[in-house]
């Protein structure tokens, strides 16, 4: 019988790609999502790729009785991957309590239910945002976390601490915290991808929407940073590569390979790229000219950050494989597919 995995937020951007990779690795996936930031049609995309429609429950993870009913309906869930969270940095500054309520209640409900239902492993979606602007680059997992610059970022720090405290208090499960850098791109089939609501806040969806003519112009936020071309530097990680890291993390916990009960891994490529390099590469691989303009800095932006992924490479046995060229092309193919 296939091992059953609960994927919260599984119709979202990273959750849908992870569901595909889990199914292709032979796992049975149960998705829980309240569809607050995703569309039920994503299930069609997943099914078109893998041939399997995952079980789906429209449930809000902050509703503990409803969540409990999911564990009762699907007995034998072995691991949870918790993507469900609110994730817009700017909105979190406007509505901090919504972010604390959603992200913390979701986590606590899941952790409380795990022992009751014998769930053995928990993967948490953390973020490089916990490092703030590091003094030394690239960042390792031992780089100190900094005071969060947004309520969203703070929920990631607090959730990491809650999981660590729960596990250290002899919780009968293992946990892996994955600190994602900047996830971008789409499945190469162009059947699933990122679906931002409204005006995209992140770089790549803004780039693809500008290229598609949905947005008039891309604003490049600043060219006066202390970087080689003056624009900010990030570690852009292909979403399918990122999804595969979750599969490896689940396998590690369920096969008893974890060296510690809570393990932390950076999930990045190890390569920093500037905004202008992204713009150039996008134009080169797609042949589409981007209308862009250098404007002032965006408040709160980190100047530069990229990962040292050595620990994930060596301990987890995971490595980013896709080139930035193929990743940007996948984002464009996905954007084009939305117009069809
Ligand atoms: P997403 O918004 O596409 O996916 C999150 C999903 O969770 C959505 O489908 C949403 O409807 C669902 N959801 C939210 N609150 C819920 C609740 N209370 N109950 C049930 N479902 C709920 O976001 P994503 O980009 O796929 O991110 C997934 C996770 O990874 C999030 O925890 C996010 O904070 C984290 N993360 C994302 C990035 C990024 O840049 N995309 C970077 C680092 C970490
Ligand atoms: C990337 C670069 C912008 C838009 C955010 C969250 C972080 C994590 C990932 C979840 C920056 C520049 C952007 C635009 C631009 N999420 N940019 N024009 O800010 O690195 O990280 O998403 O955990 O927590 O803060 O990602 O895609 O917004 O920006 O020039 O229209 O692109 O200044 O340098 P960011 P991003």
Strand composition percent:
15-25%
Which spans have pLDDT < 50 for at least 5 consecutive residues? Answer: none
**Which hetero ligands occur in this complex?**
nicotinamide-adenine-dinucleotide, UDP-4-deoxy-4-formamido-beta-L-arabinopyranose
| CATH superfamily annotation of the domain at 4-184 and 236-268 and 308-321 | NAD(P)-binding Rossmann-like Domain
- Name the structural class: alpha/beta
Helical segment tally? 11
What CATH architecture of the domain at 4-184 and 236-268 and 308-321 would you give?
3-Layer(aba) Sandwich
Order of helices and strands: EHEHEHEHHEHEEHEEEHEEHEHH
Largest sheet: 7 strands, parallel
Give Rg in angstroms. 19 Å
Using DSSP, what is the number of strands? 13
Give the overall pLDDT as a whole number.
Answer: 98
Helix content: 40-55%
Strand order of the largest sheet: 3-2-1-4-5-6-11
Task: Tell me the CATH topology of the domain at 4-184 and 236-268 and 308-321.
Answer: Rossmann fold
How many angstroms does the end-to-end distance come to?
Answer: 39 Å
């Amino acid at each position: 019988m296939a091992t059953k995995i609960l994927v919260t937020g599984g119709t979202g951007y990273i959750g849908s790609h992870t569901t595909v990779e889990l199914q292709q690795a032979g796992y049975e996936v149960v998705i829980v999502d309240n569809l607050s930031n995703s569309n039920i049609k994503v299930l069609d995309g997943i099914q078109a790729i893998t041939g399997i429609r995952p079980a789906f429950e429209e449930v809000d993870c902050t509703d503990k009785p409803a969540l409990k009913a999911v564990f009762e309906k699907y007995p034998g869930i072995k691991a949870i991957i918790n993507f469900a969270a609110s994730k817009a940095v700017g909105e979190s500054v406007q509505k901090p309590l919504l972010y604390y309520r959603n992200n913390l209640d979701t986590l606590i409900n899941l952790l409380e239910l795990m022992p009751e239902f014998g769930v053995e492993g928990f993967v948490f979606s953390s973020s490089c945002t916990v490092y703030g602007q590091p003094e030394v680059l690239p960042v390792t997992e031992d780089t100190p976390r900094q005071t969060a610059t947004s309520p969203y970022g703070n929920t990631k720090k607090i959730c990491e601490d809650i999981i660590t405290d729960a596990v250290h208090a002899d919780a009968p499960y293992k946990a892996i915290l994955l600190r994602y850098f900047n996830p971008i791109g789409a499945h190469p089939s162009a059947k699933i991808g990122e679906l931002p609501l409204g005006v995209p806040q992140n770089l790549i969806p803004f780039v693809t929407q500008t290229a598609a003519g949905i947005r008039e112009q891309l604003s490049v936020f600043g060219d006066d940073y202390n970087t080689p071309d003056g624009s900010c530097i990030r570690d852009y990680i292909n979403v399918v590569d990122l999804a595969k890291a979750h599969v490896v993390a689940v396998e590690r916990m369920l096969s008893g390979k974890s060296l510690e009960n809570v393990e932390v891994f950076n999930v990045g490529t190890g390569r920093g790229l500037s905004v202008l390099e992204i713009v150039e590469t996008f134009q080169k691989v797609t042949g589409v000219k981007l209308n862009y303009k250098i404007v002032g800095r965006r408040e709160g932006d980190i100047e530069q950050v990229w990962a040292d992924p050595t620990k994930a490479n060596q301990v987890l046995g995971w490595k980013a494989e896709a080139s930035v060229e193929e990743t940007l092309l996948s984002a464009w193919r996905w954007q084009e597919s939305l117009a069809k």
